[in-house]
Amino acid sequence: MSKIVELKRRRAELSAKVAEMAALETAGEVMSAEQIEQINAMHAEFNQLGAQLQRLEAAEQMQAAAAAQVENLDSQGVSQEGKLHAQPAGPKVAGAGVAHLAMALIEAQGNYQAAANIADQRGYGAEVAAALNTATPSAGGVLVPTNLASEVIELLRPKTVVRRLGARSLPLNNGNLTIPRLKGGAQVGYIGTDTDAPVTGAQFDDLKLSSKKMAALVPISNDLLANSGISPNVDRVVVDDLTSAVGAREDKAFLRDDGSGNLPKGLRNWVLPGNVFPAPTIATIDAAALQAIELFLNTLILALEGVDANMVQPGWVMSPRTFRFLEGLRDMKGNKVYLELAQKQLKGYPVGLTTQIPNNLGAGGDESELYFADFADCFIGEDQALMIDFSKEATYKDGDGNVISAFQRDQTLIRVIAKHDFGPRHRESIAIGIGVKWGK
Description:
Layout: H1 3-26, H2 33-65, H3 96-107, H4 112-121, H5 126-133, E1 142-144, H6 146-155, H7 161-164, E2 168-171, E3 176-184, E4 203-210, E5 212-221, H8 222-225, H9 232-256, H10 267-270, E6 276-278, H11 287-305, E7 314-318, H12 320-327, E8 345-346, E9 349-353, E10 368-374, E11 378-382, E12 386-391, E13 395-397, E14 403-405, E15 411-424, E16 430-436
Helix pairs in contact: 1-2, 2-5, 3-4, 3-5, 3-9, 4-5
């Protein structure tokens, strides 16, 4: 096991122990002199480990940065000794560090030290080489450091509806995050002479997020990987495949997962029962139908406005079928009813489309849902690191449930593990329409 990983694990243990003992004192328990001495000793060890970590990490980065380029290359870019050379710098691809880490690991067949050497020789950068040099040989794969993983996490924003509409990302501390919220307002009023002032007592509650592990499997063609390091377009394809797979599963979790077992709880299961409204059935498009649709949309908006929701970044989420119905809706004179949908706006608020809201709900298997929420009031607690592993022999299921052999297809299966959780600070900031059969 890497020395750096051991030190980080020990620091995390010390931090947890100190927090546990501090919680006892906060609860009113008087700490003994021996306990205080233990805390002081742990503080000292924590600081000592921090200094040691800083030295080791600096040494790893220097080692990776000092990798010498190979000279005397032939026309194929290979030296007479058969070594790879650093490729000329091309356009920077956001998230390429994670793609390079995965490709170097695959090319080295899981040998971390060899992968680090490949990263050096191909010019993948000191950060990638350092991450591989400090990797822990385990079934969990390679821990992608924060500086590389943050690029990939940021790339998820345009690919996931919930992030793009304004959900706020916060780091998880030791796998947990608690966000206080105002549950009931203070009582305020005017009083006369000799009249008691109203009791002022705001009620508070907590939104508690805890780490949930998500694994995304991404099949990559071995023919494509054979060209790694030659073209930045290969980096873009790998990064796009990684972020698309993670993003699709995130949207499903943050929208519709029920919170059971190891799943996060999505908006559909956070919403208050009183904020769930059945959609009107539209048989023919006439004036009455248009009025019913308008009233339904206003009902969803008023569900938030009626409880003084902050309405900082409200937005809609719907399936493509629902969007196409509304976008093509015309009045009795042939004019489009919602012209702004061409700019992905509905009644002044942004619209997100996702196939993660299904069209096969309900008893008849033909219903969908329509979401309206203040996404600035929604929080994603996430670990700022990712884990990457690979296999050339594993099997996986495609979108139709068919079992696919990576070996038989000449593919490499990359597994990305992310840890996060999701929740709204105020459940009143969500309204959902159900039974939407429009456009079926």
